[in-house]
Every structure is written in structure tokens, then in C-alpha cells.
Amino acid sequence: MTSQTSWFETAVAELTDPLDQRVWSIIVSLFGDMAQDRGAQISGGALTRIIEPMGIKPEAIRVALHRLRKDGWIESDRIGRVSHHVLTEFGRTQSAAVTPRIYARGPAVDERWHLLIAEDGSGTQLLEEVMLSRDYTPIGRNVALGAGPIPDQTEGLLALEISPKRAPKWVQDRLCPHELRASCLTLLNAAERAAETRPKGWAPTPLQSATLRTLLVHRWRRVVLRQPDLPPAFFPPDWVGPACRDAVFRMLDTLPRPSSAVLNGTG
Amino acid sequence: MTSQTSWFETAVAELTDPLDQRVWSIIVSLFGDMAQDRGAQISGGALTRIIEPMGIKPEAIRVALHRLRKDGWIESDRIGRVSHHVLTEFGRTQSAAVTPRIYARGPAVDERWHLLIAEDGSGTQLLEEVMLSRDYTPIGRNVALGAGPIPDQTEGLLALEISPKRAPKWVQDRLCPHELRASCLTLLNAAERAAETRPKGWAPTPLQSATLRTLLVHRWRRVVLRQPDLPPAFFPPDWVGPACRDAVFRMLDTLPRPSSAVLNGTG
Known about the structure:
Two copies of one chain form a homodimer. Chain A is of the alpha+beta class. Chain A has two domains: about 5-105 and about 175-265, Winged helix-like DNA-binding domain superfamily/Winged helix DNA-binding domain (Arc Repressor Mutant, subunit A, Orthogonal Bundle), CATH 1.10.10.10; about 115-170, 2-Layer Sandwich (Alpha-Beta Plaits), CATH 3.30.70. Helices cover about 50% and strands about 15% of the residues of chain A. The first copy, chain A, has eleven helices and seven strands. The first copy, chain A, has helices at about 5-15, 25-35, 45-50, 60-70, 90-105, 125-135, 170-175, 180-195, 205-225, 240-250, 260-265, and strands at about 40-45, 75-80, 80-85, 115, 135-140, 145, 160. Chain A has a four-stranded antiparallel β-sheet with strand order 5-6-4-7, with helices on both faces. Chain A has a three-stranded antiparallel β-sheet with strand order 1-3-2. In chain A, strand 5 (about 135-140) and strand 6 (about 145) form a beta hairpin. In chain A, helix 1 runs parallel beside helix 9 and helix 8 (about 180-195) runs parallel beside helix 10 (about 240-250).
């Protein structure tokens, strides 16, 4: 085992989410990153070779695939001894919906924000209905924050354009909970440590690239999708989101995205 | 009885508040209008002559004066058979505090507005404390509207500058309740009817002027002090506040304010 192999193993251990090893979710991240195109297949063998280095057993992969088929995310077929998996139309749609946010190189910088305020009591239901169909961040039982200008239809709600300059701690804590800040910080630290120890000139095999990419995308996805794009004033002072995003993409950029064809042909 | 005398009587009947004839409050309006200066006295006789035409009995005036003395608004003394009443320092301060709003010829047009939003639950107490010491209009349990820019001290509250463009019905109803709109409309109608029927060239005696001024100021005061200066969007479409203000001041301007010396010397 060369020192380069062992860096890969160290990096995998570093980047493995200490809190969340839900295999089905890792597979979703993998397909979203490397097999999101219509008809892009990943063979059962490739899937195992990408995921096994994370310490996940083939049996756990089979269980996760079963669940993903049951939930309508993935379809599988088998020719002889070789199985192939593809995202269903539903799976592709779900994956495509979050791809722009996961892979955005910077936060969506909205200059305009607005509040919707519901009447105490009965009005909160009206607000909840609006929040079901549009992207709002609740600030309280009867107050929600939305990006962009005030929409045309806000019947029954007080809609006010705002330019937040500062926010009290409870707002920052509500919109950026401690657990999310901790996830973000540990991912930042992991990515930075892995980058620092990486031997000069180390080039990944397609499979190594796939494993590391999957880990990075999986963890970043769980940070970025739980963190609404907020006015800067709403982030707590210890929020390292931008640094974490930079570290994730700095590493992703050194890990060429292998095609599914290459992955299926390996091994 | 000339037709001019009878117009005065009709106008008094018209301008008498159908809902509120609290005599102590009428006396407060009278002092605020004609004897707010330090040391300005109103004799018991003048008070009776100004207020009796409203259909208020001398006994009711005595009861009201007793209450105002007990509450620290008024001091009375008596020389021989003549009693005199003056505002106390407390009474003058209270009166002076609302004089600018009552006599303003137009609404205070604030260009800047802000919201204070409290955290659900414990935060509402914080908001209530702020509202005790500063002039805020509650929009809900945890939201209050304030005029001007955001104050420096808003610790624990989300403070947002706003430019309200439109408001839903519940906000208009809350800030401008139906009863207040009705009071405003009936005062507008009364002032307009009185102005229309007024004989050309009719000139009031100082006492007549004092009676009509007291009625007008008393009723307008009860409208304007219950109506916060709000962003225009927050007023309901049937709000006649500006027209009412115009009608009140159009009539006040034709009723010279008699000095307390003149009033005390009459009769």
C-alpha cells in the first residue's frame, strides 16, 4: 500500500459523515452527481466499488436499493449476472430540483426580501398555505421571510418589502440552528484537513474520484439544503457556510467527474 | 329668538357627541383650547355659561370638577362667591403633550417606518416593554409598527425598516376600527351640516365661540388621539380622517379663540 493509497483511505475516513451514513441518501447523492442524465446507468458492481470504501457492506447497499425502488427513485434490471440501476423520471425530477442549489458556487444573492405577516389566530393557516406552495422561511408562528419582491397574490397577509440590516440572536438561531452550524463546521474542517494532507501530484482513479465526490456532495447537500439563502444579517457570526462551500468545491474541482460508462467498465 | 341664535342652538345640537358626553373630558378639552397657559383661569360662571348650552346641568359640571381636582388635573379657589379653576402642572403637562397632535393641520407624514418583531412566546414580553415606553402600534401579538428609522436599542427584537405599499383588511380594521371610522364620519357630517346652514355674516359672541370650539375640539380630539399616524396604505378605503380634519379646522378658523379674561368677564 503506497502513501497515496493511504491518503485516499484517510480522506475517505475524514469525509465520511460522522452522523449520517444513510446509504439510500448516499446513493441519491451519487446518482445526482454522476448519473443524473436520462438513461445514465450505474452497474451494481460500480455502485459497490464506489460505496464499499466508506465502510458500507454490500448487504446494506442492497437494502438501500430495495428501498429506493420501493419509493420510486430507482429502477433496476439485470442482464445475466450484471444488474444496472437508473434514476426513474421521478428520481431525476427530484434530483434536478435541488441540483442548482447544491452546485451553486456562491449563495443566491437576493437583494430584495419581503415579509408576510398573518393575523394572529386564524391568519396563521393562511400563511401556512402560502408556505406550502412557495419558498418561505418561517420567522415565527405568523411571520415568514421570502426572497425577491412581494408577489402579486398575498391576499389576507400583510406583505412588506424589507432590507434586513441586523438580526437578533433568536432569529439567527432559528434560521441557522446550532446543529446545522456544527455540521457545516465539521465538514469545513474535514475538507481542509484532507486537502492539506493530500500528497502533491496525487491523481485519483475514476473510482476513487467517484467515492470522494459522493462523500463531498452527500455532506454538502445535507448542509446547503437545510440552510435557506438568507439576508447576510440573518446568519450568526460563527456561520462558516461560505468557507465550507469554498473548501468543498476546491476539492471537487480536483476530482474529475467520471462518466457512468467509465465507472461501469472499471473493476 | 333670531334665526342666528337658533343656528347656534342647531349647531350645538349637531356637534354634541351622540356617544360621549363625559363632562370631565369636555372640561379638559375646554382648558386645553382656551386656558392651557400657566395661570390661565376659568371662572365657575364662565365654565357654566360655555357648557350649559350643551344640555349639561351645573350639578354635572360640579361633579366633573370634583373628579378633575381629585385626579390632580385642576385646582380651584374661591374669592367671595366667585370660584376660579386652573390646570395644575400635571394637567398642563398632559394637555401640552397631546396639543400638537390635536391641532396639527395635516397628519404627521413619516416617510420611514419600521417593524419590531418578537420571538414567539417569551419575546412578546420584551415587545410589550418597548411599547410601554415608546410609541408603537401593535399589528399582532408579536409585531409592532413604529414611525421613523429603526431605533438604536432593539435588543432581542428583529427590527426591519419598511415602506408599506398596501395592507390587508385585517390590518386596516385593527389599526382603524369600525367604531373609530364611524366617529370620524359622524363628526365630518355634523361639521359639514353645521357649516352649510350657518347664516351668512353670523359672528359668534365669545361665549358662543367657546361653546362651539369646545365641542369641536372635544370630538376631534377623541378621533385624532385614537388614530395613530399610519402609513397611508394602512388606512381603510372608507377612512375620512383628512376630510374630517379639514372640516373641523375650517369651522374652528371662523370661531375666534376667546381669551380666558374675556370669558371670565362675560355674563
